[in-house]
Amino acid sequence: MSYRKMEEGMVKDLSKTMSYSDYLDLDTLLSAQKPLSKPEHHDELLFIIIHQTMELWMKLVIHELIAAQAHIDADNLEPAFKIMSRVKHIQTQMIDQWRVLATMTPSEYTEFRDFLGRSSGFQSVQYRKIEFLLGNKDAAMVGYHKHDPVATEELTALLNGWSIYDSFLHYLARKGLPVPAEVLNRDFTVHHQSHPGVIEVLKTIYEDPETWWDAYNLAEKLVDIEESFSMWRFRHLKTVQRIIGFKTGTGGSSGVPFLRKMVDHSFFPELWQVRTHL
Which tens digits make up the pLDDT trace of 138-172? Predict the structure, then answer.
């Protein structure tokens, strides 16, 4: 049996310096799981941790998307490429988390489901921020957070601002590509609708990627993120269906049918449609 001897330089006395636990604030993090079932059901901790870690990943996705968008707006694409690749890897982790939750059976979930009350993932402020950042704008969604003034203010700001796709289209226009003016000057509080003029611009890029390499690369990074988001939605849908079937959601939605409506939603429609035109 191998033995690892501690090295002389390793710090033993942490009483006067910052420790690993201090830096990560683990006392706060690890005390944030508070199961409500009485007696506590074994799988409620799993349910809480999956959703809490999902929120942590979403916090990072928001952080990265905002940074990537700022680089695009500054015509500084190399850092944006790296950040968007990172987002794709984060999304892979988020997709795989549903597999862990899917190990919980319907019988196990029903033991503590009533303790959730009316709480639902649909109410996630961070999820809504990601949708707004990617372009799925709907002012009515802000109303679901009216009980939270800070969330309402933050969501309203994102609702009124450019999505990352708007930043992409404005970048193309700055590079001399004929993005239609009505697309560039549209109402940014509603989601972008496909425009034939944008398809033509993307066709130009995809038919000559060497000339338009940066735009071509950026377009594919956006496709990566949307594809991963769709896969995340699909895994969520199948996990919910596996655990609760077609029961009504805790937040009052129809459950699986409600989730199914968004699986095929497209944030960047022309990026998918251009493929048919090449």
Answer: 999 999 999 999 999 999 999 999 999 999 999 99
Cβ-proximal residues to 136 (8 Å cutoff; 6+ apart), any chain: 191, 265, 267
Yes or no: say if 42 and 107 are a contact pair by the CB < 8 Å rule. Answer: no
Q: At what angle do helices 77-101 and 213-244 cross, to 10 degrees?
A: 10
Contacts of 211 (CB under 8 A, 6+ apart): none
Name the residue among 267, 262, 259 with its Cα closest to residue 238: 259
Q: Provide the phi-psi class of 25: left if phi over 0, else alpha when psi is between -120 and 50, else beta.
A: left
| Non-local CB neighbours of 92 within 8 Å, separated by 6+ positions | 228
From residue 146, alpha-carbon distances to 86, 125, 129, 141 in Å are: 32, 11, 15, 10
Share in percent of the chain as helix, strand, coil (round to 5) = 65, 0, 35
- Cβ neighbors of 9 (< 8 A, separation 6 or more) are none
> What's the pLDDT score for residue 263?
84
Model confidence, pTM? 0.94
Neighbour-count burial for 200-212, b at 16+ CB within 10 Å, e otherwise: bbbbbbbeeeeeb
How far apart (Å, rounded) are the C-alpha atoms in residues 108 and 52?
19
Q: Is 65 exposed, middle or buried (0-12, 13-18, 19+ CB in 10 A)?
A: buried
Taking 80 as the threshold, does the pLDDT of residue 1 lie above it? Answer: no
The 10s digit of each residue's pLDDT in 75-107 is 999 999 999 999 999 999 999 999 999 999 999
Contact 188, 162 (CB under 8 A): yes
